Here is the input.
Amino acid sequence: MFNKIVKILNKIKNKHIDFPNLDSIIIVGTFFSLWLAVIFEDVIEHVMAYIFILSFGILHGANDLNLIQKAESKKKSTRNYIKILLYYVLFVFGSVLIFYLVPSLALVVFVLFSGYHFGEQHFISKTIRASFKTNVLYFAYGTFILFLLFNSNNLSTSEIIKTIIDYSIPISVFKVGLLISGIISAAFSLILVLKNELKINPIKELFFIGIFFVVFKTASLLWGFAIYFVLWHSIPSLYDQIFFLHGKINKRSFRSFVVTSLPYWLISVAGLLFLLFLFRDNLEKSLAFFFSFLAAITFPHVLVIKRLNQNQNQN
Here is the structure.
């Protein structure tokens, strides 16, 4: 199976080519995951979701230091590994501290960062050139996906948010956020397509959104998030990162990526498992701390990928 995927990916020569075969694999994986959601109870879904996120989900952000080093070497920078590592660790701990001191602010920033990051990954290969309009589209589309997830699981989402920030927010916020981000996404997609700055198939994009809606409505909050986060975001991101580091996709490059990611991946997984163990008897609290920790390691990753995409656009 892996060899087949590798052959498909190696046919792709540049970032402006769509990924029809990869899309097909992801869609099949999505419907298989959706079938699992139908036959298993929420408890089993949560276990599968944790496994999904702790494996490919965390892995896709575990090689940031090597990505930074690669980018710096291309610019002939003199920054060394220790200095980069120090900045990165301080950023992660700073994010954890913000969640502890000002959880409401940290939660908003997490949604904004994640929204931009999801939208960037989805559209970067279809963007002809970077601009303010494309940045707005990235942010609006990714936020739309998050609000689609939140609105489809509004009660569960509301309980988790209450656990994090210690007060409830109206469920109507999810609907308003979904409506506003959806309108902005549609408007800027149309503008960029008309200006030939974005190459997309509108029917396919609407089909994808339909898939997300069905998944989020059918699966639990955590399983729905895991399906999107891993299949639709992490796997395409892994491809981009491996190609950036090694220039090709094969068993050797994938193995090398995993080996260099291992230290950070093990630390992240150990931290998350420790939190899950502490709050194993309280689902809402365990999910709240899980997403908070995930947010803390997401912030620097978003900035790293943004920096890499800017460098590639300049080259």
User: Anything to note?
Assistant: Residues 16-308 form one domain. Confidence is low (pLDDT under 50) at residues 1-20.
